[in-house]
Request: fold
Amino acid sequence: MRNLMIFTLTAMCSMGALADHHKGDHGEMKHPVKEMFKRADLDGDGSISTQEHEQALAQMTDQRRERFAKMDVNGDGSLTKEEARAAMKERKKKMKEKQQGD
Reply:
């Protein structure tokens, strides 16, 4: 169980590092691990309980399902390389437009 929790936290940190960068109130970059921890610590007590961890995993799973559904353009429940490439291209385009708008 401990290994699973370590693996999951590591995976969440990795996902945070790969996610879009979010700017703080003063334009500085927020640290992805701090943000991940802050989102998972629902009661704000400075630690993540097993229940909070499970809720964070469920939320991450829901978000990934939503992304998958958006990429699965034809809705067949299967993602082709072409659909994945098109989604990545669109995501890069949106990120570039967002950066130019800032």
User: Anything to note?
Assistant: The chain has a mean pLDDT of 81. The chain is about 70% helix and 0% strand. Residues 50-71 form the longest helix (22 residues). The helical segments are 2-18, 32-40, 50-71, 81-101.
